[in-house]
Write a structure and sequence with these properties.
The protein is of the alpha/beta class and 308 residues long. The chain has a domain of 162 residues: 3-Layer(aba) Sandwich (Rossmann fold). Helix content is 24%, strand content 27%. The strands form 2 sheets. An 8-stranded mixed β-sheet has the order 6-7-8-3-9-10-12-11, with helices on both faces. A hairpin with a 2-residue loop joins strand 9 and strand 10. The longest helix is centred in the middle third of the chain and has 16 residues. The protein is globular and about 60 Å long. The two termini are 28 Å apart.
């Protein structure tokens, strides 16, 4: 069953400049994505490509000057602001990128126990803390008494204790050493195996490959390819978009060759054409104009006119 389906999602911000002149700028444009129950889908992209913005749009926590268009569906039902508010913290859980989401005036144990609108037992709390390498005394501490890595683990505990059906993890392994980062990703894999839909946002492609079902690649504020995780193997020829292949070959295990050009962190003023066209060796005139359609290719899909 598809838990979250995103169709043609665009997110834009209204800004004032030159003495109260208003301008609207897009930061996400035409994004397509879906994740089903029992799936772990990893969202990969450079910093500023819109990964966190995607999470905030789904959770309904965009800033006041933001607007969006397109469709977001939760179990086939339109994800309206009213539904987002009702589900947030219960069926929808977010592991945020910033540790500032923790309440500085409340002991972390109480915050975790109250996650999801209910109160969990101390036994559940301590079991979860042990899983993430947190001592029992941590529950009586305040956020300022914890290291960055410990606060990150508390945030993961907060989102995973409540049994949410859709879990969005925004860079959950940031600040964790390699062994604990792997254990954290494994925990999200376990949650998916238990029936949750997991959307894991990360810049670390290599760490999620053994655990993800599919990889969604973002570039320039849009999704350019969604492929099964096993497509990221060998010389990358199973990947259909040139940027996806460039990301793969940039890993240390491969050619260690960085993608050409500067990362495009938001859509161009004109949304026409492929956002990667300036750096693609096989780009044609057709890549520079018009809407690049989403094409189903084997087990995934790609936004590229040359994909076969």
């Amino acid at each position: 069953m598809t838990v979250l389906e995103i169709r043609n999602l665009s997110v834009f911000f209204s800004r004032y400049y030159n003495w109260f002149r208003k301008r609207t700028e897009a930061c996400l444009n035409g994004l397509e994505l879906s994740v089903g129950a029992g799936q772990l889908v990893a969202v990969i992209g450079s910093s500023g490509s819109g990964k966190s913005l995607l999470a905030h749009a789904v959770m309904g926590i965009l800033p006041r000057n933001a607007g969006w268009s397109g469709q977001m569906l939760y179990k086939g039902e339109l994800l309206t602001p009213q539904l987002q508010q009702r589900l947030r913290g219960r069926e929808l859980a977010l592991v945020p990128q910033s540790v500032s989401y923790l309440n500085p005036l409340m002991q972390v144990g109480k915050q975790v126990r109250m996650s999801g609108g209910g109160v969990r037992s101390r036994t559940e709390l301590r079991s979860m803390f042990r899983r993430y390498g947190l001592e029992s005394q941590v529950e009586r501490m305040y956020p300022f008494q914890l290291s960055g890595g410990m606060m990150r683990r508390v945030l993961v505990s907060t989102a995973t204790l409540g049994g949410a059906e859709l879990i969005i993890a925004d860079e959950p392994t940031s600040g964790l050493h390699a062994e604990l980062a792997q254990e954290t990703v494994m925990r999200f894999r376990e949650l998916a195996d238990e029936g949750s839909a997991v959307l894991l946002i990360t810049h670390d492609l290599e760490s999620v490959l053994p655990y993800a079902d599919a990889i969604a690649v973002l570039y320039g504020g849009t999704s350019i390819e969604v492929a099964p995780a096993h497509y990221f193997s060998g010389d990358g020829t199973m990947l259909r978009h040139p940027y996806s292949r460039a990301l793969w070959t940039a890993l240390p295990r491969n050619e260690f060759t960085p993608p050409k050009g500067k990362p495009l962190v938001r859509p161009a003023r004109s949304a026409a054409g492929c956002p990667y066209r300036e750096y693609c060796e096989s780009a044609s005139e057709a890549c520079r104009s018009g809407q690049i359609p989403v094409r189903r290719v084997n087990e995934g899909w790609v936004r590229c006119i040359d994909a076969t």
